[in-house]
Amino acid sequence: MADLQVAPWILVIPVKRTAIAKSRLAAAYPQHRPELARAFAADTTAAALASPLVAAVLVVTDDPVVATDVTAAGAKVLPDVPAAGLNEALEHGAAAAAAEYRGHGVVALSADLPALRPAELTAALAACVADRSFVVDLPGTGTTLLAARPGVELDPRFGVGSALAHQASGAVPLGLTAIDSVRRDVDTAADLAHAVQLGVGPRTADVMSLVLGAATGTEGLAC
Asked: Which EC numbers characterise this protein's activity in its record (predicted)?
């Protein structure tokens, strides 16, 4: 823990262009899917920046609206220069973080954690004492957070079955309980319903209010 206090973490959050992001939400939220994707990224970034173990957040994106939102929250934006996929974007962000913030650990964090709580993120980061650690998502097959200690390559292996891929690469899964907000990434309508139950951030809550208002023919309905 003492080392983490001396050298806090730099978080790298990759965000697709929201015009194409969260495609599995399209059936349930055809009119609000891009707004939801942007809201997820904004709420995730704001919650991450509120953790005392986070020194900075780098958002890798080519979406100009997302860039504006996260910059306003206090994050730095990197263009997705590789434009070759999620892992390549994370490697680009990790390289930038290592160059600018020497002596800090680097963390890849999912951009779709709208219920993320700073205290739970802090608990997860404090538990990342191995060279590389990761958090398994709630379904048990994916990864929402991958951390590499200072001087250690991030080596991201996100994608289908990433939990097994990260473990096979030598990363250590965290065995923490009570960090559901760190594990609740949102890909489907059912995921979003669960995130709402956990308590989503203000941007996501605003969009969900519009969704509920559209469904009932009213506006300004509380989430």
From this structure: 2.7.7.105
Where in 17-97 does DSSP place strands (E)?
54-61, 76-78
pTM, two decimals, is: 0.90
Where are the alpha helices (H) located in 50-179, listed in sequence order? 64-73, 86-100, 118-126, 162-168
Q: Which two tokens stand for residue 156?
A: 């991201």
The total number of structural domains in the chain stands at 1
Q: What is the per-residue pLDDT across 99-120, written as a single tens digit (0 to 9) for each?
A: 999 999 999 999 999 999 999 9
Task: Report how far residue 107's alpha carbon sits from residue 94's, in angstroms, rounded to the nearest whole number.
Answer: 8
Please indicate, yes or no, if residue 223 is contained in any of the structural domains.
no
Binding residues, as ranges, are 143, 159, 162
Note whether residue 221 is domain-resident: no
- In this structure, the strands spanning 132-136 and 143-148 are antiparallel
Look up the CATH number of the domain holding residue 63.
Answer: 3.90.550.10
Annotated binding site for phosphoenolpyruvate: 143, 159, 162
